[in-house]
Amino acid sequence: MQVVVPFAAETPKTRLQPALGADERSAFARAMLADVIEAIEAAGHRPTVLSTSPLDLAVDAAVTVDDRPLSAAVNAQLEATDTPLAVVMADLALVTPATVDRLCSRQGDVVIAPGRGGGTNALVVRHPEFRVDYHGASYLDHCAIADKIGADVGTIDSFRLASDVDEPSDLVEVLVHGTGRAPARLREFGFELDRGGGRVAPLRGESVRE
Amino acid sequence: MQVVVPFAAETPKTRLQPALGADERSAFARAMLADVIEAIEAAGHRPTVLSTSPLDLAVDAAVTVDDRPLSAAVNAQLEATDTPLAVVMADLALVTPATVDRLCSRQGDVVIAPGRGGGTNALVVRHPEFRVDYHGASYLDHCAIADKIGADVGTIDSFRLASDVDEPSDLVEVLVHGTGRAPARLREFGFELDRGGGRVAPLRGESVRE
């Protein structure tokens, strides 16, 4: 299956600013993207990065440039094809080939993997009229859009697909459950798990450069 | 399968204090507990609430009182049985019969459903020597404990099992994905989804009483 991976190339992961400097955020975002691409390929699917600007990647994948906002760019991809299309976010650092396989093999005109906070982290679209709207509570909006066009909805109950990495507290998940380039990058940056207290937190000794 | 549901009866959900008053936290914690119990029963398993003090429940379930800390109380249950035992946290408000079934039918000497932040939200124990240690990064600790005694570990990749409700921001998940008494309680308390901005948040008009 063709899998589109949207990527904001210029200012990735701004909400990680309290934990990571600008260059680190850029390198970390590209590491997560590479992990996602490799998981998609290992599951036997074909990733295309849908980037806001031209991109040099550490891994082999097609890149399509579209500088429009996320929903408009993804909808242009949906309009341009009449075969099933998956959309997987570039910051799902915990994704494995098995999770991609679960997503793509699930039946349904529309298959949604919800993200935390009411979001939509991954989608499979097999209905020609379905269009995305990522603004706000997109999980509920996507269910409503599917209902309106008579498309049935399948849901994927996955912690790995639900865990988009947006905020400093999300880095814990990458350090605990990640296996690829993204946790390796964090460790290069000096992060480790703080396991002293009742909860685990990402911790590093040096101060953050901006 | 016997399923133990630990419950802190006296001071439940203190980290929800910024969003809910003391009586509300108590009622909400009991609503989540009732949802968890009903999901376990609907999946064909036998729940026992392991409570820190005697408890009147809105639903029919056995209650065992043990006022020791969580890990000691759960380990006493593990020591007292030679049949498989599951341990499911009482604040998994998104749990459904299907998720309980996924947990209990997964093979493995030890089966772990990780929670956010490195936690362990649900467990199945089929190895006589396995003991829990919920302090800190319990997911990693439980994997290490299993490894030490030669027990194989299965993992359940579930957003519903990963979503323990600890902090005000977690209430969004209950409002979006919950189906039982817990979201009904929140709505009674005046919460609704704020879908105006780019992210969804739980919102209510009135101020919080303490």
Describe the structure.
The structure is a homodimer of 210-residue chains. Chain A is an alpha/beta fold. Chain A has a single domain (2-165), classed as Alpha-Beta Complex (Spore Coat Polysaccharide Biosynthesis Protein SpsA, Chain A), CATH 3.90.550. Chain A has helices at 22-42, 70-79, 97-105, 138-148, 159-162, 171-177, 181-188; strands spanning 2-7, 46-51, 62-65, 85-88, 110-114, 120-125, 153-155, 192-194, 201-203. In chain A, the strands form two sheets. A seven-stranded mixed sheet of chain A has the order 3-2-1-4-6-5-7, with helices on both faces. The first copy, chain A, has a two-stranded antiparallel sheet with strand order 8-9. In chain A, helix 1 (22-42) links the parallel strand 1 and strand 2 (46-51). Chain A is globular, with a radius of gyration of 17 Å. The termini of chain A are far apart. The mean pLDDT of chain A is 93. At the A-B interface, helix 5 and helix 6 of A face helix 5 and helix 6 of B.
- Biggest interface and its residues per chain? A-B, 32 and 31 residues
Tell me the β content of chain A.
Answer: 15-25%
Number of domains of chain A: 1
CATH first level of chain A: Alpha Beta
Helix residue percentage of chain A: 25-40%
Order of strands across the main sheet of chain A: 3-2-1-4-6-5-7
Euclidean distance between termini CA atoms of chain A: 40 Å
| Poorly predicted parts of chain A | none
CATH fold description of chain A:
Spore Coat Polysaccharide Biosynthesis Protein SpsA, Chain A
Mean pLDDT of chain A: 93
Known CATH architecture of chain A: Alpha-Beta Complex
Biggest sheet features of chain A: 7 strands, mixed
Q: Sum up the overall morphology of chain A in one term.
A: globular
Query: How is the quaternary structure best described?
Result: homodimer
Order of helices and strands of chain A: EHEEHEHEEHEHHHEE
